[in-house]
Amino acid sequence: MNNYFRVVAGIILLQLVSCLPEPVNKSQTYQNIIILSDLSDRVEPLINGIFPNQQYPPKDEEEIKNILRFFKDECVKPGEKIGDKSSILFSTFSTESVASIDIDKIKDLGSKQQFINSTGKYENNGLNQAIEEFNKKVQNAYRNIRNPGLDLLSVMVDKVENGKLIKENKVLTNGVDTTFINFDNHIYIFTDGYLEYKGKNSNSQFYFGINEIEQIRKYCTAQNVDIKTALDKNRSFCLPRIENNIYQFVNLHVLETHERDKDVQLQKYINPRGLRDNEILREVWRKWAVESGFKSFEWRKY
Predict the structure, then answer these.
(1) Is residue 14 one of the residues assigned to a domain?
(2) How far apart are CA 269 and CA 301, in angstroms?
(3) Average pLDDT, stretch 33-40?
């Protein structure tokens, strides 16, 4: 008789368990876009008062508009997507933040969707208006802010490690279902690629200018090797890597806007292909980014 009751109890238990919903695991990915602009004499008519500036008048602003369009149309997707958590921020290297839009700050789903779609209480101050205001603040920064002589890499490292710019992945669960919230962190640096700053004599850790470029060029010519081989063989040519696990979550994009060894009027280069300023700077930056553990690296000349 006891065995009979055990069997019946087992059957009932199995039926109850089979009625429970299956756990659902979901993974959602959002974008966290950070734009850092080098507003040195790179945005003046002449670089160092000598070189005609290919960047002038500023073309950064058009590229930033493209990033904003990507943020709106491909990340947030008004009218299509529900509950987005993406964000975008613009800053110069001398300021904390000039403009930002963070969808994740609006916690109520109804309010969030009204903001995204610029409807309801956000009809006149939703995402569309936020993007317009973002663009105006970018333009104002380019007109009024100048910060020549900054140690660009040191400032960027400080912003990343101490500025709470990077969003980390998190897990949400209700005891049954689990949602994995992932963030793709992208840092876009608008610069000419040359790492020159005041005070080199006291701190040359992240300095890389014309003389350093020329040393690599001469080494490559004398040893008959390419830039990558020169950097692998001679560590003195390389930038010191940084040690912090946070960079494994960061996709680094360097948008290079000026080549000093290119004559824009005659459309010719002073140096041969394979040894041009842009090519040397690209490989130096790339090696530094890879050794520092960045998730990915892009160098784009535009």
Answers:
(1) no
(2) 15
(3) 92
Is 131 a member of any domain? yes
Residue 216 within a domain: yes
Q: State how far the Cα of 190 lies from the Cα of 71, in Å rounded to an integer.
A: 17
* Residue 189 falls inside a structural domain: yes
Q: How many distinct structural domains can be found in the chain?
A: 1
Which residues, at least 6 apart from 263, have a Cβ–Cβ distance to it below 8 Å?
Answer: 269, 270
CA-closest candidate to residue 239, choices 188, 294, 300 = 294
Predicted TM-score (pTM) of this structure: 0.87
Cβ atoms 190, 34 nearer than 8 A:
no
Does the CA dihedral 93-98-101-102 come out positive or negative?
positive
Task: Determine the structural domain holding residue 189 and report its residue range.
Answer: 25-301
- Average pLDDT over the chain reads 89
Residue 17 tokens read as: 């368990």
Helices vs. strands in the chain: H and E counts, helices first? 8, 11
Are 42 and 196 spatial neighbours (Cβ–Cβ below 8 Å)? no
Confidence at 265, pLDDT banded by 50, 70, 90: confident
* 102 touches 135 (CB < 8 A): no
Whether the Cβ atoms of residue 36 and residue 163 lie closer than 8 Å to each other: no
pLDDT digits (tens, 9 = 90+) for 135-161: 999 999 998 888 877 899 999 999 999
The count of other CB atoms within 10 Å of the CB of residue 166 is 17
pLDDT at residue 153, as a whole number: 95
Whole-angstrom distance, CA of residue 183 vs CA of residue 180:
10
